[in-house]
Amino acid sequence: MRFLLFIILAVFTWHVSAQITASETSHDFGEIYEEGQTYTDITFTNKTGKTQYLLTIDKPRDVYYIFSAKKLAPDSSIIIRFKVNDGIKGKFNYQTDIYFSDSNDPISIFLTGTIKSVSSNPLTDCPDFNSKPPSADLNFSLVIKVIDSITREPIPNALVSLVERGELVGQYNTNQKGIVVRNVPLGYYFITAEKNPYYSNFFEGYVNAQRNYVEIELSFTEPEIVYHEEPETLETVYEDEVDTVSIPDPVIVEEIPQDSVEEPEIIVPEIIPPLTEIPDSILDPGYFKFSNITFILDASSSMNSYGKLDLMKMSMIELVKILRPDDNVTVLKYAAEAQVLLEHVSGDKKEEIISVIKGIKTSGSTAGGDAIKVAYALNQQRHLHDGNNLVIMITDGVFNKGSTDYDATIEQYFKSDGTRFSVVGIKTTDFVAEHMQAIVTKGGGDFIEIHTVHDAQTKLIAEIRRTAYKG
Length: 471
Known about the structure:
alpha/beta; Immunoglobulin-like; Rossmann fold; 3 domains; 22 strands; elongated
């Protein structure tokens, strides 16, 4: 009797497990906007041990489908592609029943999501298998639409720039519907849109397969940016692997004798062309001195808005791409205190420099005055007698904490050995621009304003070329 029960149980278990299975029985499309993804593929596998057939598909009116085959040999699969109608705005929850010859019961597939924007030309036919739906990895279709802020009409041929952690992913032009569709990995993006005579505008945030639509409004008036004063009592959190620099007051700089620093011998051409005639992406040693650059990067919490941190990172990454092995780079960041991130790294170690730049995070208030003193001390350690010695601060505002006699330090070094001091202002106010202009004048440098992706691509490079030019 026990043996008979065992046989019956085994046959029943085999019958339950040996059936046609679906790769998924529910699919959530998330929010669907115009040009968004409206179809998905589901794989059905025959595990019955016998040849089976697709019999019929019982579906709602607004679901469309195609299939790769009707016959399923043992251990083989077919694909059924399901598409939802994106011509009806609102939430949807569709059940589709698939009948195969192995069972009287269907396999039910549930399709859910929300149509947020009705397609201007909805296609009722399901795309053929030459069109591939999104893969199951971390990539997805990102839809970006650029519109007029008043009329709400799409803006064709607007330039859209995608930036991720300071690196330019790509630049694209919108189509006649004001739309760009790109396949990108999920992540946090800074996305800008621009077209004359509009002011540029941006989106900044996290996007994924469910949050895959970005709408950017352009207007003929400059978008208002609200600046907040940083409180001096903010608690600062630092990365564990970075040492905090203790700053003595005053900072005493011990200069290395000039003849102790080896400098490469350069053969200077007899005729140096005008700076404007030398391609922007070239730092030819015959035309440009080698550079000893110390960067002071604002990592206060005010930089973590309006894309300012990405613009700062991008401007540096673009410069690093054209640095030469004999260029020297030191990087400090400052918030409540100064921290050395890179110390005397040659320009050919691009991956190392870019990795550090992309990893910068914000926190705390703004002790820029202290960081300036540390920067000059480090810059002097690699001072080039006939080179381009430069301290560059990249910030969005004035300092509200720390040393206040930094202007004397800046003026002293420019007068004594020609070390220049320049400031890159990221989306700064007129008040900040005026304040910083007065400081850089004492240091023989320039104040460079960066407001757009194009500025980040070009202006810092232009400053290095200007200060290193031999003509």
